[in-house]
Amino acid sequence: MTRILYFTRDLTTHDHRFLTALSQTDYQIYYLRLEQRGHPLEDRALPAQVEIVSWAGGRSPTRLRNGYKLYTDLKRVIREIKPDLVQSGPLQTAAFLVALTDYRPLISMSWGYDLLLDAGRNSLWSWATRYTLNHSAVMVGDCNTIRQIAIHYGMPDHRIVTFPWGIDLEHFCPDFSERRTDRQTFTLLSTRGWESIYGVDVLAKAFVQAAKQRPELRLVMLGNGSQASYLRQTFARSEVMDQVYFPGQISQRDLPRYYRSADLYVSASRSDGTSISLLEAMACGCPVLVSDIPGNREWVTQGVQGWLFTDGNSNDLALAILKAIDARLQLLEYGRAARQLAEQRANWNENFKVLLKAHELALSVQSQ
After folding, report:
1. Can you list the domains of the chain with their CATH numbers?
2. What is the pLDDT of residues 140-151, one digit of tens each?
3. Whole-prediction pTM value?
């Protein structure tokens, strides 16, 4: 039986999904966690078929001073488990640690931000990126934008496997009967974290501008984050707080209801590969308005699934919101196009099969 060591930074919703799918294969799956940061990102138990590995890490945030201890204990874990391959990411943390042990074959798994942001942080991070990719049999990424950056850092094109992670199309599904064009309000939905990288400041400024012209406008902001104080102050100072709703952190079970009840999904993210929340919105038949960045352009065509606006430009976003309100009779058509695209390209059950092909490729590279 093929032994897979799945080594990741933390346990997120995405990790849970990958591990659950892997547990249903003929593989023996071992799960190794690099760190635990703050509040739990995923509180569901892992499948019984996944063996959770106890080691020196995984209990608290990682510190550089603990690097050698983690390195030596990772070598012990690999020596004892004897995995046939290791799948690990992000590139400069978990995957880099595996690369340092000189274990092969390694499938390095990009989480998007590791190549879009971290790789260019400074010369040390750039070196770690190149080192990891140089020691990887295969790299897995979720969009062509990530692929091109990996090639720039030295990964051979033929050893890159690209597939959008996709979503559960049965869970995230539309109810077009709920999408009425005669409602008294027009609701925007934001599901991104309240961090500057997700452009929530841009969204807040744009909403204030648009709301002053269209009092029927509403904004629902899920989640939380370090920009909470800024957001609340911005809305309060502009006297639009009564038009903004903060439901808090929403479970995966309840998310589809929010997508289905919104008139428009909005994301002002400054950096994204294939955004899972964008796929969720489209799968639920919700038209989208997103920043004009490479990752989003791989999914959104202007005037088909929704709209794009100039990245970082709150004035352009405000104008796009007003345009969407005026085009509300077309939103049902945009929502249907969004769902159709999700069915074509974002089916998790189909896309996961590509990861299994990546495993086969890694094993074949190792045997050469």
Report:
1. 3-166+347-367 (3.40.50.2000), 176-345 (3.40.50.2000)
2. 999 999 999 999
3. 0.91
